[in-house]
Amino acid sequence: MTELTRRNTMKLMSAALVAGVSFSSLPRKAFSAGTITVLNWQGYGTDEKWSVEAFAAKTGITVVHDYYSSESEMLTKLRTNPGAYDLVILNAARCAQAVAEDLLQPIDFSKVPNASTVDETLRANPNFSKDGKGYAVPWVWGMTSLAIREGMTVPDSYAVLADPAYKGRVAMDDDAIINVGVGALMSGQDINDPKDLAAVTAALKSIKPNVKLLWSTEDQWNKSFAAKEFDLSLFWSGGSVRSKRVSKLPVQFVVPKEGGVGWVDGLGIPSSAPNPEGALAFINWMIDPTFYVEWATKIGAPASSNSAALSALPADDLTRLVHKTEYLKTTSFVSGIPDDRREAFNNIWQEVKAFYAE
Amino acid sequence: MASVFHRAQLAVPVAFILILGCVLPLAVLLVFSVFEVDLDAFTLVPAFSGQSWAQMFVNPVFAFLIGKSVVSGAGTALLAALIGYPIAVSMTRLPVLWKGIGSIVLLTPLYTGEIVRIYAWRVVLGSEGLVNAALKWLSVIDEPLKFLLFSPFTTHLVLLYNNLPFMVLAIWISAELIDKRLIEAARDLGARPIDAFFKVILPLTTPGLAVGVFTVFALAAGDMMTPSLLGGTSGATPMAMIYNLFGTAFDWPLASALSLSLLVVLFAFATGFVTILLRFDGARAVFRRGAR
């Protein structure tokens, strides 16, 4: 038998300490059937205190959170922590990649009753499915399109960006994917795979005389719009709602005939989730009209994928007015873009920016 | 017995800090510049690839942006020298109290954050800003002057405003060190004020001018915030591109290659400017005096 000397006692204590530290540094696992661990951006819907408490009261399931600060970090966490998460919020553009790497499991839609009223266009997004199986439930969506000063002629096409009437009165979003997408729409191409990149470049270069500034943050956009530095811009749908609601700016969001450049976030269950049943219940709650109306009206939220939830908003609600479900028919959603194409898109935008600066 | 420190030994701590804070990060950038990127896995793949460096020479965008940065830095340094020199020299003639007040006036803007200053300029120069409002009120204009904000004019005006104190301080310190008897001697020997300036004051202040030019050139050429937030479409800079490549685009090898290219070009130009300035006889005399 090992003698309990001071040295052995110290060894035992050290081992216990190391084990304790190692254990506490692991992502918090869902150890009981009554707990789920959600991986998301911080402050993005799932971790609203009132919502988590309401869900716990309703189902007896405790919701624990872990956060990521970039999509690359999210994928890394899924890859390196099997069994750590029950639910992950991920963009459609990243979902296809996660599915290809077997990081997600198919969703049993029969256990998500609220999914029956999720818009069909969003459910059919190819990034969320593989071999006829759905791997994520569309949660919220939004888009980039045109924002114009109220009282001005409402444009019906992105061609307005090159209209001489707006000389020096246009602001563009300083984002390669968005701008190449708009350039693709202007030249009648697929935003995710434009074949004629020269036409995209030419379309973006054609608006040079009109472009006054390139904005990169919502705050920058708001300040410049308030100072009347521009009248027409590419802008986010959610941003236009906040600008009008919070900053009281006279902005009108317009989706032209070519459609918007859309994004959609989905709720997926990792393949190694310890509590998939609890995750399905939480997914159902996340697209529930009760939760969504509270989130959208009290805090502010993107558009719900659930048309029933969106319709439950007051008729004059800005989120509802800006995100009309008919826009989904024409909106092109950003997909996962291969390395070489992403690099080409970045190169185009850098070239166009340098051209603007000449 | 007390150990005798050689000059070389005294330089060890400084050398250590320089290696740790400057040489090592540059070495890391050099290594990254030959790596490749796997965007699916969001990882850098160790490889010996010259792809990023090839881009520096093949893609005209990089040369254009680096050139733009050099021109911007040189232009700001030249204007700062032309405006700052008379201010600095005249400050040496002020009484002590006024010198103190002058230095406070000079340095106060630097105590406010760069973002605060940028937004202050936007308030002053905007379409509905103070300048346009005043000109409208005076019936000088009917429509706001658009070039005042989000234009190359704005960028260079604010770069000059931000960096002028560094130029003035550098020249002022240099001018303060001039032995006033040298100027008196020149006058006694029949030199006109203009001759005294070109033969005595200017040569003896060239070290300060060189420091000012080097500092202002580096700060103006390397500024990202001012062109981005005030330059409008003219605000494209290598720094903004590096920021984008390290961030959104996740192209660290290209960002590293661009960073090093920019560093080499800016350093070469800055060194060139300073070398030219220090070829003045007066500058050599100052350094010889300092070495004694």
UniProtKB/TrEMBL annotation, chain A:
Query: What PANTHER family does UniProt report for this protein, alphabetically?
Result: SPERMIDINE/PUTRESCINE-BINDING PERIPLASMIC PROTEIN, SPERMIDINE_PUTRESCINE-BINDING PERIPLASMIC PROTEIN
| InterPro entries the record matches | SBP (IPR006059), Sperm_putr-bd (IPR001188)
Q: Name one GO molecular function term.
A: polyamine binding
**Classification via Pfam families:** SBP_bac_8
Q: What is this protein called?
A: Bacterial extracellular solute-binding family protein
Instruction: List the signal peptide residues.
Output: 1-30
Taxonomically, the superkingdom here is Bacteria
Q: Localized where?
A: Periplasm
TrEMBL record, chain B:
Biological process terms in GO annotation? transmembrane transport
ABC transmembrane type-1 domain sequence ranges = 66-275
Q: Which GO terms describe its cellular component?
A: plasma membrane
- Just give the chief location class: membrane
Give me the segments passing through the membrane: 12-35, 61-84, 96-120, 153-175, 196-221, 254-278
Entry-linked SUPFAM superfamilies: MetI-like
Q: Does the keyword Lipoprotein apply?
A: no
Domain of life (superkingdom)? Bacteria
Q: Which UniProt keywords apply?
A: Cell membrane, Membrane, Transmembrane, Transmembrane helix, Transport
Membrane topology listed for this record: Multi-pass membrane protein
Q: Where in the cell is it found?
A: Cell membrane
* Family, as annotated: Belongs to the binding-protein-dependent transport system permease family. CysTW subfamily.
This protein is called what? ABC transporter permease
What organism does the UniProt record list as the source? Rhizobium leguminosarum bv. trifolii
